[in-house]
Design goal:
Blueprint (H helix, E strand, L loop, with lengths): L1 H16 L4 E2 L5 E3 L6 E8 L6 H11 L4 E4 L1 H5 L4 H9 L3 E4 L20 H17 L8 E3 L8 H9 L2 E3 L23 H15 L4 E6 L14 H10 L3 E3 L2
Parallel strand pairs: 3-4, 3-8, 3-9, 4-5, 6-7
Antiparallel strand pairs: 1-2
Helix pairs in contact: 2-8, 5-6
Length: 246
């Protein structure tokens, strides 16, 4: 009887903890605990991760836990074993970014699907097995980041049916453009992204925000936003935010 009561109370507490989550119109969590002065820094990786060591050094030095979302393709590459072990050893969150980094839908306003529910389900299950192979179990409700940070409502529902919570970057924060290169129309400098981040904080605050960094970018982008990570962390702390992971 006591065990049953404890389980019920634990479940109710979990619901209360996430009651203030904000989801986008597709069903992905884009703010976790929007009533708390908490910020989550997330890092995704598929084919490139040259800044991974720098990122982990900064997180260790500042005492911050981040959330790393890796593809199965990234995990399977032998050359990435050491950095993955370090992510785990430092106690960061490690979740799925898909198995093969599928673009789930078109880059249109309707997010027209390119991947159907069954194909996504297979990808999710393969990604779970890949994480399991390195000792990471996907617990119920574990956060997962859709590939390319892009999906529609059908895809988000499949994630939930597979026991995962789809999360995505907080709208209005443009650090996601750190992957762009100078010849792209959407290219943004680190200076621009930093200014935009603090303008966003000044206008509406960053409570519950999910802020992404790509620790792997093309060589032609020499202006790496991740080199400003420590500066960002210290400024967030000064503003009274607690940095945590999923």
């Amino acid at each position: 009887m006591k065990r049953l009561i404890f389980s019920i109370l634990t479940g109710l507490l979990a619901l209360l903890c996430f009651a203030a989550d904000v989801c986008d119109r597709h069903g992905c969590v884009v703010r976790r605990g929007a009533d708390e002065r908490e910020v989550r820094l997330i890092f995704s990786a598929d084919s490139m991760f040259e800044g991974g060591t720098h990122v982990l050094d900064v997180l260790a030095r500042t005492g911050v836990k981040g959330s790393f979302f890796l593809t199965g393709d990234f995990i399977r590459r032998p050359e990435n074993k050491a950095i993955i072990c370090r992510i785990i050893e430092q106690g960061h969150y490690l979740g799925s970014h898909g198995n093969t980094h599928l673009l789930l839908s078109k880059w249109d306003d309707r997010r027209t699907p390119l991947v159907d529910a069954d194909s996504l389900r297979r990808d999710i299950r393969a990604a779970k097995e890949c994480l399991k192979s390195i000792g990471v179990e996907s617990h119920a409700g574990a956060a997962a980041l859709p590939s390319f940070e892009w999906c529609n409502a059908m895809h988000a529902q499949v994630f939930r049916e597979e026991g995962l919570t789809p999360v995505n970057i907080t709208p209005g924060i443009e650090t996601y453009r750190d992957y762009t290169t100078p010849e792209m129309n959407e290219y943004r400098s680190s200076e621009f992204m930093l200014r935009q981040l603090w303008e966003c904080e000044a206008k509406g605050g960053l409570a519950g925000a999910v802020i992404i960094f790509h620790a792997g970018t093309q060589d032609v982008r020499t202006d790496k936003l991740y080199y400003h990570l420590e500066e960002i962390i210290e400024k967030l702390k000064q503003k009274g935010y607690r940095l945590t992971s999923f």
